[in-house]
Design goal:
CATH class: Alpha Beta
CATH architecture: Alpha-Beta Barrel
CATH superfamily: Glycoside hydrolase/deacetylase
Number of helices: 10
Largest sheet: 5 strands, parallel
Helix content: 25-40%
Number of strands: 7
Number of domains: 1
CATH topology: TIM Barrel
Radius of gyration: 17 Å
Strand content: 5-15%
Order of helices and strands: HEHEHHEHHEHEHHEHE
Strand order of the largest sheet: 1-2-3-4-5
Length: 235
Amino acid sequence: MAVGLIGLLGCRGKPAHKDFGPRFFSGATHVPCSKGLDRDHEWPHEALVASLERARDQGLVLHTFGHAPKLDLGEYAADFDWAAAHGVPMVTFRELAAGHTGAGWAFTVDDDDVDTWYGWRDQLRAHHVKVTFFVTRYDRLTAPQKQELHELAADGHDIEAHGKAHENAVDYVAAHGLAAYLRDEVQPSKAALVADGYAPVAFAYPYGAHTAVIDDALVQEFALVRTTGGAWCLK
């Protein structure tokens, strides 16, 4: 990505570039779409700059997601600092479910690379960033990794569900039915977190894959269900 952040973030007037588009901002939906920020997601960094401006100016929440180690947290340090200084707070899915209003940036990270997440602690603290970690394969985490996750939660980060085994919801439902997907993937993911002291309020679809029918079932289990852009964003 071409960054040039000092210039971009130092003279914020009317956005000079297109933002990510309205589907990546919170609206009247329980199924928000999220924009990928991994290194292999090709987009100009200026689009994030313009998206933060849109969040600020229109009082919206921007949704982004990534995966360690593809996500280079350091690339976003200047964005985090600008957001904090200009009324775009980092908001977790727990805060969104509790009724957050106004501008915000919902910065989410998926899967199970807990050791890398834990290694980000100093950077996250330095830039006042609160992350929602959507965790999959919780039953495969080691005891030290589960302790690291609890320490991240104690720092104010949000721990939410991302499936028991990271199955594609659309494929799984097609092969086994909706009831089986809920029984095998969704409910065990939630139950594992609850058993370890968390109170999940959100679920992120692996691969972003979903349908309106699956959504209707999951919003009975969670206040918010996150998907991703492209074909999976049903807006």
